[in-house]
Specification:
- By secondary structure, the protein is mainly α.
- It is about 75% helix and about 5% strand.
- It has helices at about 1-20, 25-50, 50-75, 80-100, 105, 110-125, 130-150, 170-195, 210-225, 235-260, 275-299, and strands at about 195-200, 205.
- A two-stranded antiparallel sheet has the order 1-2.
- Helix 3 (about 50-75) runs antiparallel to helix 7.
């Protein structure tokens, strides 16, 4: 936590100096991101210090906000309202309750099996068949991303790794640090050195230089953090690269969804970052992959 605070202080100082020497919209956006990071880091630190229940409550709230943003941008009809109520008021608390009681077997299949089958059936009861397949897919995909995939981050608390008992919050911290540092460093490398766009029609800000430079830098930080994990430095570096790649694919896929809906951001909740889902798009792709690689590779 002290290291994170020191990084934020350094970032704030750099942002202040850049604003004094070369003010502009890019620097203003960078400083807005840094201010938002102070708030997010404080919230995460508080939850980590309070323990498992506070962490689950936090991620449950994040799932609620992210799902609300997703549904707000994707058109639905009155016939979907009951299914949406089930998503918000039954699926979210149930998913995080299953993590809280360590019921891995039901946690891992509840939404992708039972939710996948139940939600379209509930919507069908309304009798509204207009665009039924597309509407069902939107609700299901929103639930999978905002709840099921995101819940794999705090689900790291479920893992039983020999010799690492009682330290699983550090795994969660490791995942979040690598994902978010990767986003920040890709942004910085892209602004400083970006020349070749990766997918200009999907995400005009993503460049080859940003992905390679920022991704390798984040993987280097992840490798240096091996001491808070059950991994060796080499394993930590390779897992960091996997997290970086999954996070990049998540950001790209959800950017494509936003573009198809004619939106720049998922919302305006976080200054400089857009909506909650804009900040979590990398986490929702990286968390389930990281969870299962660790579960089957290190337990």
């Amino acid at each position: 936590m002290g290291g994170i605070g020191a990084l934020l202080l350094l970032a704030s100082l750099i942002g202040w100096l850049l604003h004094r020497r070369k003010p502009g919209p890019v620097i203003d956006n960078l400083n807005a991101r840094i201010r938002a990071w102070w708030v997010m880091a404080a919230v995460l630190a508080t939850c980590f210090l309070l323990g498992k229940v506070a962490t689950l409550v936090l991620f449950g709230l994040l799932s609620f906000l992210a799902l609300r943003e997703f549904i707000s941008l994707t058109p639905t009809r009155r016939g979907d309202h009951l299914a949406l109520c089930l998503c918000f008021y039954i699926a979210i608390p149930l998913q995080y309750w299953l993590i809280g009681i360590d019921w891995y077997g039901l946690f891992v299949v509840c939404i992708p099996v039972y939710g996948f089958l139940l939600l379209p059936a509930v919507s069908a009861l309304s009798g509204d068949t207009e665009d039924f397949l597309a509407r069902s897919a939107k609700v299901q995909w929103g639930l999978m991303l905002a709840v099921y995939c995101l819940s794999h981050a705090p689900a790291l608390l479920l893992l039983r790794i020999p010799g690492y008992e009682g330290q699983n919050l550090m795994l969660l911290l490791y995942l979040l640090l690598v994902v978010q540092l990767s986003d920040v460093l890709q942004y910085v490398f892209g602004k400083l050195f970006g020349r070749h766009l990766l997918a200009p029609q999907v995400s005009p800000s993503k460049t080859v230089e940003g992905l390679v430079g920022g991704g390798l830098a984040a993987a280097g930080v992840g490798a240096a953090l091996w001491w808070i994990t059950p991994f060796t430095p080499l394993q930590s570096g390779l897992l960091s690269l996997l997290i970086v790649l999954c996070g990049f694919l998540g950001g790209l896929a959800l950017s494509a969804v936003k573009r198809s809906l004619g939106a720049k951001d998922w919302g305006e909740m976080i200054e400089g970052h857009g909506g909650m889902l804009d900040r979590l798009d990398s986490v929702v792709f990286a968390a389930p992959i990281f969870f299962h690689v660790v579960r089957y590779g290190f337990q």
